[in-house]
Specification:
Helix content is 6%, strand content 52%. The chain has 1 helix and 18 strands. The strands form 3 sheets. It has an 8-stranded antiparallel barrel with strand order 1-2-3-4-7-8-9-10. A 5-stranded antiparallel β-sheet has the order 12-13-14-15-16.
Length: 258
């Protein structure tokens, strides 16, 4: 593994790759995180450590890791055609990657190898200013594909996530009531009715007999939320999508578990 910023060579000290689920189609997005350092005596202290990462991830075009080897993802500017960022580089501050190519070199049962080249802003001096070239090649543990379940709150408010974990929706009635309120506003020709959706779904997760609490904050949307769970909980859950069809008895939560 290596990292080069312009003509300076660094040693990669950590590299990780993780996956998440895109709400609208359940396809995968990838997050890459690389830290590197150099012990060069010729560099100022501020340039001795670099951190290259994808803050919001990028679409890899599928729901599995099959056929990923050899794929390339290109940004000709700081965003691609999906509006996804080319990445960020931290040297002095968090600055944008202005263009780049990510190539999946190899995928095995245990590892993934990636090459990432491009240009990024550093804003240190004339030599390390705008559009500074970088190149890195890393190997990381093959990321797990997040597992997800679809649970229907109108059928039950208590669900098994796995053999050791159970999720309980504590105030689902409040969610239904808020849904009905916005629905009535919509019927009254309020075009912004669903943008006024404002509710918090309280949850309890029981894992191996221990209770952990969390919530899903729906603000300005009935289908997208921010999920917060007790940091000490070993199971991290995320409600990444919600679909509503109360006429047919469906209020579905799409929940990923890692």
């Amino acid at each position: 593994m290596y990292f080069k910023l312009k003509d300076v060579e660094y040693q990669v000290i950590s590299a990780s790759v993780r996956l998440d689920i895109i709400p609208r189609n359940q396809e995968l997005k990838m997050f890459i995180d690389i830290e590197a350092e150099t012990d060069s005596k010729e560099l100022d202290y501020e340039l001795k450590n670099v951190h290259l990462y994808h803050n919001n991830g990028f679409q890899i075009g599928g729901k599995t890791l099959r056929n990923l080897k050899g794929k390339k993802y290109e940004w000709k500017k700081d965003t691609n055609r999906f509006g996804e960022e080319a990445g960020n580089l931290y040297v002095l501050e968090h600055e944008e990657v202005t263009s780049g190519v990510i190539e999946i070199i190899d995928v095995t049962k245990e590892k993934i190898a990636i090459k990432w080249t491009g240009f990024a802003n550093v804003f240190w001096n004339d030599e390390f200013g705008e559009n500074v070239p970088f190149e890195t090649e890393i190997e990381a543990s093959l990321p797990e594909i997040p597992k997800y379940k679809i649970i229907n709150g109108m059928e039950s408010t208590r669900f098994k996530l796995d053999k050791n974990s159970e999720l309980i929706l504590l105030n689902f009635e409040d969610i239904l009531n808020e849904c009905q309120r916005c629905k009535e506003l919509w019927i009254q020709n309020d075009s912004e009715a669903w943008q006024k959706y404002d509710a918090v779904l309280k949850m309890k997760l029981i894992h191996k007999g221990i209770e952990y609490f969390g919530e899903a904050d729906y603000k300005g949307s009935a289908t997208q939320c921010e999920t917060i769970i007790d940091e000490s909980c070993p199971i991290k859950i995320n409600i990444f999508k919600t679909t509503i069809d109360t006429t047919n008895g469906n209020y579905n939560f799409y929940i990923s578990c890692t």
